[in-house]
Amino acid sequence: MNSKISSILISCIVFIFLPSLITSQTCQKSCGNIPIKYPFGTGPGCGDPRFQPYVICNNQQLSFKTHTGCYPVTSIDYNNQVLYINDPSMSTCACTQPSKGFSLDGNAPFSFNDDTVFALLDCATDSSPIYKSNGGVNSTFPMCDSQGAPVCSLLYSCQAISRLNLPISTCCVYTPVDLGPAFEMDLEKLHCSSYSALYGFNGQELNPQAWKYGVGLKYKFNFNNDYPDMCESCEKSSGVCGYGGPYNSFLCNCPSGFNTSNDCFLGSSWSNSFRNVPWQTDILLIIALGWFMILALM
After folding, report:
1. Cα–Cα distance measured from residue 13 to residue 294, given in angstroms and rounded to the nearest whole number
2. Which residues form the Wall-associated receptor kinase C-terminal domain (predicted)?
3. What average pLDDT does this structure show over 161-178?
């Protein structure tokens, strides 16, 4: 075979295999400045399929999606399995604004974290279902937590919230357990114009300006809340846990961009003592195959 034909064949082989050499990991390990670990993912096929429709990475912004809106994720506490989000429409000590409320989808694998406190603001005392008349004296339904009175009092010490033009202060601490099985907080039905949510006092219980405003959402890996062994092995091999196929079976997405059904270590099914770097293994295999084809055609 002359040198010209050989050069053409080598060029073709390089063009065929070059994309494999430069393929990057499909499932990323971060979204913006937030680390991404199981059960979350940065796109379809990444993480756990049950969580993929609700936690979305778009243009390096991690968001949480429900039927009431799309909310930026501020942080994730992987040790305690809590995801924290911010609702830009809710009221804080710095700003009071109208809101439609916040709700979780009924089939979403999330629940409100016990530390989350909701406070309903600017509710109509004559028509809101959280108020009732008892001999001309207003009293609250059990959904208003009497132990939340200090929270309401401190919220109304904020200049923004104190400007609400109300005959009396209407602030009702709305505990998550009372949101019902659908976790629905519809402010229109409750005849309230706004709400505030916080998940921590930041060590300054008497200073509402320093509180951690937002919503904490608890999640579980599965019924027994056990971290999947296959996912743990995948992550130890620099892989990212994902899924694929018609049954959303487990896949380990490796740094080379390829998926495996186990982990990214070569020979892990034979021996745990000999393990190669994943991307080096892929490149060596491709180069060897390329040279074999060249020699076979010469």
Report:
1. 8
2. 210-256
3. 66
